[in-house]
Each structure stands twice: as structure tokens, then as C-alpha cells.
């Protein structure tokens, strides 16, 4: 840009700044950030038989007398009751195991697509994204028909003579693992693919010229260079899965209780809004660290991009 | 440097089978005559007929489509503004916070977004009397809040790769910045706006959890109807619905692919 800016341009720039930054900021501040403050406030309230079903945190009792009541019982209950703790731990366990499974299946797939002939890549990638565009709910539903006792999987296994009596898979933790990996696999593959296609192939050629075996070259060159993709993909799977509701609700059983489902039933069945809010606050606190990690990584990658 | 690729290709084939076999089975069994979804008794299209006579489901689908369309349009506007901010205004105060706010909705669990927005709407109703009831408006606001973040990702990628020489040429010829943006920049990023719109549309059409929290008693969206019927057990009508959705999506993707290829050839 020329050094002395004409005033019209300055005015335009100021206007553009106001519109482009101000409007989205305002929307997200009002409908994304502010609600968390209200959740925190209500997690400290008491459930009540009223409309809405919680007590006010503060009220003017008399002229100049403000009564503030902070109720910590919701958090104490969550800390003391085994149900809530085991649901939180189980959610973390499901998220960790499913992230690893997605990585185990997704990394080779992303690698195969990234190293496929160029004319095939777009189609192969399209085929990864396509299921994502069809209804998530219906794709989870598809697994009920496959996994149930007289479902297609058991029928096939019996027909093959591998088992005599149907396996109980639906409404177990295994079914939750299958459903989560199935639904979240594209979220792992896409960032890994983006990362692996940017990899400079001359590095691998140099390693091969220096006598490095392919497996070793992969472990020493490709894998470390794709770390950013691994972390990004893992966070895109891990963070939402911790709070997943639909999959544990439709495919899981009593022993696979997860915090998202618990929050749902506290809210919709027990109408205990303060307790549901306390669970949301705890879930949020749990996810802050992985989220900040993801954000840092993203910014670092942008900084290093030419 | 030719390596043996068959283990990798086997795994790739397995991965695609894993992604597609459940969908294929849904489609096959939507043409099954029996009510028992997994026992094949004969070819029939009767479930499609029943689906078309299911008033509750059709009403819900119409509501969902309207919400999705309004949501997608608003999300494209807001998401594009946010992308402009991130690409065109490199350094501004609060940029980190801005980026944080734009990334968080991508990964935030649905139960948290749904609960927190409902509590906001209830609190707003108590203090300023708006929104009067919960339904179309509240669901749309909730959907815009998370889908604008997805649109921003798509538009931002396109905007930062864009060749700016055309814009500069127009500026040199004396065009006003707003005019340059509307006549040069927007047409250049149109494919991203289009795919952002489609993405926001499907995200909205697909959402069960957030809509369940912020919907009022009178507003039932399509995923809510699917969910309650799935909870009752497997239903062949849902298979028929799944087949229709898959057919529409595949058609849209193929058409978009052809259009994009043609656009590239013209250029």
C-alpha cells in the first residue's frame, strides 16, 4: 500500500474493521460466551418447583439488604456420588480409547489416500466426507440393526459357523466404541490427510538414498512431521466424544454411562437444571486443557506457514 | 522407491467398507416387505408410501428444512464476516479471543451448547421479555452460533489462498473498496460460500441435541421425530427416510462436483 493513505481509505478500513470483527464478535459473545456465565450462575442455585425450576442467586430482601445464596451442594453431590464420578471417568475412557482406535484406522487410510495417484485423491477423499453429509442419527441407528442379538452381524457369524449363540453387543461398551469410531473417523482422517499431502517427498527420497529402510524412514521422517495432524485429528475426536449423547444413548447400556447422557437425563427426566448445569461446568473444565492445546498448535502451524 | 502397498490398500478397503456397509444395509432393507427389519421376506416399496403419509414426520421435516435454510444463510453472512476479519485484518486487539470463540463451537459437546443457550433464553425472557416463546427463532439462533464457525473455516481457507491481483487492479482503476469486495472478491470466493451454505444447512438438518434443549413444546424437528421413533425400536420407515437422504446428498455432491469441474475448465 502507498505510504500516505487517503482519508477515504482510512475511513473504509475503520468501517470494515467494525463490521467484520464487530458483528461476529457480538454474536458469539452474546450467544456463546454469555451463556456460560449463566450456566455457572445456575449451577450454584438450588432446584425448586417453579418456572424456571431454580432459585434466584440473589434477591433484595429489604431496603438496601441484598441476600446472596450460593449453593455448592450440586458440586458436592457430583464429587461424592459414585454415579457421577464413574460417568465422568467412563466418558474419558471412551474418548481416549476411541481416539486411539480412530488414529489406528485413520492414519493408514489418510496415508494411503495422500500417497495415491493424484487423479484418485479427490474421489477417495470425497468418499470419506460423503457419510458425514448424511444424517448422523440415522448412521448411528444403522448399527442397531447390525449389532442387535438377532441382527445382521450375529446372523452372519452364525451362518459362517463361528458362533452358536448370538453375541450380546448392542447396549454394551463395545457397541459405543464401534459407533463412536464409525461416526468420528472422518474427523481424524481429514486433518491427517491435509498434513500428509504437505509433506515434502524429497525428504523420504533423501532418507532412501542414504540407505534408510522404508519402515525406518516412516518412523523417523514421516511420523514426526505429521505430529501436528495427529494432534489436530485427535482433539477433533476426543473433545466432542467426551460429551457425546446420541451414541451412548442409542447403542450403550447401563454400564456404559457417559456424562453427556447423564446431563441429558438430569435435565429432561429429573428436571434438575442446577445439577445439569454443574455437570456442564465440570465437563467444560475437563475440556479446557485439550482445547487450549489444540488452539496453540493451530496458531503455531499458521505462524510457520509461508 | 516402490514399496509393497497391498497391506495399506487392504486397510483402506476395510475402512471404506466400515464406512459404507451400514449405509448400504439401510438402503437394502428399506425395500424389505417385512416389518422386522433384518428378516428379508420380499421386495416392496410400501415403507416409502407410509413415509409419505406420515404427517407428523412431514411437518417436522418441513420445519427442519426452513430452519436449516434460514440458518445457512445467516451463518454464511456471519461466517464470511469472521473470515474477512481473520484474513484481511491480520492484527487487531482481541484477535486471540476472537479465534478462540470461533474454534470452540467446532468441538464443544452439543449438550453444553444446548443447555447453556436454553438457560440464556430463559434468563433473557425473564429480564427483557424476549424471546416470547421457544421454537423456530431460538433453534435458528442456536444453529447459527455453531454453524457460522464451520462456514468461517471454509471461507477462510479460500480467502487466504485467493489471488489478490484482480482486487488490486480494480483499486488502481479507482473502484471503491466496498464495490471491489462485492464485484470481485465475492464472485471469486463464491464456491466456498456455496459449500459453506450446504455445510451449515446439513449441520442444522442433522442436529438433535441442541434443538431438543432450545425447542418449545410446539416445535418438533425432523431429528426429534427420528429419535423418538428409533427409541421405540427399529422402524422400516426410518430406513426409507435414510435412503431418500442418501440419494439426495449423493446427487447434490455429484452435481456440485460436475459444476466445479466445469468452472475450472472455463477458467
UniProtKB/TrEMBL annotation, chain A:
Localization in the cell: Cell membrane
InterPro entries: MetI-like (IPR000515), MetI-like_sf (IPR035906)
Gene3D superfamilies associated with the record: MetI-like
Predominant location: membrane
Gene Ontology BP, a term: transmembrane transport
Listed transmembrane segments: 21-44, 83-110, 122-144, 175-196, 217-242, 273-293
Signal peptide interval: none
Mode of membrane association: Multi-pass membrane protein
Alphabetical UniProt keywords: Cell membrane, Membrane, Transmembrane, Transmembrane helix, Transport
Stretches assigned to coiled coil: none
Domain ABC transmembrane type-1 as annotated: residue spans: 88-294
An example Gene Ontology CC term for this record: plasma membrane
Family (UniProt): Belongs to the binding-protein-dependent transport system permease family. CysTW subfamily.
UniProt protein name: ABC-type transporter, integral membrane subunit
UniProtKB/TrEMBL annotation, chain B:
Presence of keyword Disulfide bond: no
Source organism superkingdom: Bacteria
Annotated transmembrane regions: 7-31, 60-87, 99-124, 136-159, 180-202, 238-260
Pfam family, one: BPD_transp_1
Residues of the ABC transmembrane type-1 domain: 61-256
GO biological process assignments: transmembrane transport
Membrane topology: Multi-pass membrane protein
Gene3D superfamilies according to UniProt: MetI-like (1.10.3720.10)
Subcellular location: Cell membrane
Keyword annotations: Cell membrane, Membrane, Transmembrane, Transmembrane helix, Transport
Cellular-component GO terms for this entry: plasma membrane
Entry similarity comment: Belongs to the binding-protein-dependent transport system permease family. CysTW subfamily.
Protein name: ABC-type transporter, integral membrane subunit
Organism: Thiocapsa marina 5811
Amino acid at each position: 500500500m502507498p505510504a500516505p493513505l487517503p482519508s477515504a481509505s482510512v475511513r473504509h478500513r475503520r468501517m470494515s474493521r467494525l463490521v467484520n470483527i464487530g458483528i461476529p464478535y457480538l454474536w458469539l459473545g452474546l450467544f456463546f460466551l454469555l451463556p456460560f456465565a449463566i450456566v455457572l450462575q445456575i449451577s450454584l442455585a438450588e432446584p425448586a418447583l417453579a418456572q424456571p425450576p431454580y432459585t434466584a442467586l440473589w434477591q433484595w430482601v429489604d431496603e438496601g439488604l441484598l441476600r446472596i445464596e450460593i449453593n455448592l451442594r450440586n458440586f458436592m453431590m457430583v464429587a461424592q456420588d459414585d454415579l457421577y464420578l464413574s460417568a465422568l471417568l467412563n466418558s474419558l475412557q471412551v474418548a481416549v480409547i476411541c481416539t486411539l482406535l480412530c488414529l489406528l484406522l485413520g492414519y493408514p487410510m489418510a496415508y494411503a489416500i495422500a500417497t495415491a495417484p493424484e487423479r484418485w485423491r479427490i474421489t477417495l477423499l470425497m468418499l470419506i466426507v460423503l457419510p458425514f453429509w448424511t444424517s448422523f442419527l440415522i448412521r448411528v441407528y444403522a448399527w442397531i440393526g447390525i449389532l442387535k442379538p438377532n441382527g445382521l452381524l450375529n446372523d452372519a457369524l452364525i451362518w459362517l459357523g463361528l458362533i452358536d449363540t448370538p453375541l450380546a453387543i448392542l447396549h454394551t461398551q463395545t457397541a459405543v466404541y464401534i459407533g463412536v469410531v464409525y461416526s468420528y473417523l472422518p474427523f481424524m482422517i481429514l486433518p491427517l490427510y491435509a498434513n500428509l499431502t504437505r509433506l515434502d517427498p524429497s525428504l523420504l527420497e533423501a532418507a532412501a538414498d542414504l540407505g534408510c529402510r522404508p519402515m525406518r524412514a516412516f518412523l523417523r521422517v514421516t511420523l514426526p512431521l505429521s505430529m501436528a495432524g495427529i494432534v489436530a485429528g485427535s482433539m477433533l475426536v476426543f473433545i466432542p466424544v467426551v460429551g457425546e449423547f446420541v451414541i451412548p444413548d442409542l447403542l450403550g447400556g447401563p454400564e456404559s454411562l457417559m456424562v453427556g447422557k447423564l446431563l441429558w437425563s438430569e435435565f429432561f427426566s429429573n428436571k434438575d437444571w442446577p445439577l445439569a448445569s454443574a455437570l456442564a461446568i465440570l465437563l467444560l473444565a475437563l475440556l479446557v486443557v485439550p482445547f487450549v492445546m489444540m488452539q496453540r498448535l493451530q496458531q503455531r502451524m499458521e505462524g510457520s506457514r509461508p | 522407491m516402490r514399496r509393497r502397498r497391498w497391506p495399506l490398500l487392504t486397510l483402506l478397503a476395510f475402512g471404506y467398507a466400515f464406512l459404507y456397509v451400514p449405509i448400504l444395509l439401510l438402503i437394502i432393507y428399506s425395500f424389505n416387505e417385512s416389518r422386522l427389519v433384518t428378516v428379508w421376506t420380499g421386495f416392496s416399496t410400501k415403507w416409502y408410501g407410509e413415509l409419505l403419509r406420515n404427517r407428523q414426520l412431514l411437518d417436522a421435516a418441513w420445519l427442519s428444512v426452513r430452519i436449516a435454510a434460514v440458518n445457512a444463510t445467516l451463518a454464511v453472512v456471519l461466517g464470511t464476516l469472521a473470515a474477512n476479519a481473520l484474513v484481511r485484518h491480520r492484527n487487531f486487539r482481541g484477535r486471540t479471543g476472537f479465534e478462540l470463540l470461533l474454534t470452540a463451537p467446532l468441538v464443544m459437546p452439543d449438550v453444553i451448547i444446548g443447555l447453556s443457550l436454553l438457560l440464556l433464553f430463559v434468563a433473557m425472557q425473564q429480564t427483557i421479555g424476549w424471546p416470547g416463546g421457544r421454537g423456530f427463532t431460538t433453534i435458528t439462533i442456536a444453529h447459527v452460533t455453531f454453524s457460522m464457525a464451520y462456514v468461517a473455516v471454509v471461507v477462510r481457507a479460500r480467502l487466504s489462498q485467493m489471488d489478490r491481483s484482480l482486487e488490486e487492479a480494480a483499486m488502481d482503476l479507482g473502484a471503491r473498496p466496498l464495490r471491489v469486495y462485492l464485484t470481485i472478491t465475492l464472485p471469486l470466493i463464491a464456491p466456498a460460500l456455496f459449500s459453506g451454505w450446504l455445510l451449515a444447512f446439513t449441520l442444522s438438518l442433522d442436529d438433535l441435541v441442541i434443538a431438543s434443549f432450545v425447542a418449545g413444546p410446539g416445535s418438533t424437528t425432523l431429528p426429534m421425530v427420528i429419535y423418538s421413533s428409533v427409541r421405540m425400536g427399529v422402524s422400516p420407515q426410518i430406513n426409507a427416510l435414510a435412503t431418500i437422504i442418501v440419494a439426495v446428498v449423493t446427487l447434490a455432491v455429484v452435481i456440485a462436483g460436475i459444476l466445479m469441474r466445469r468452472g475450472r475448465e472455463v477458467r
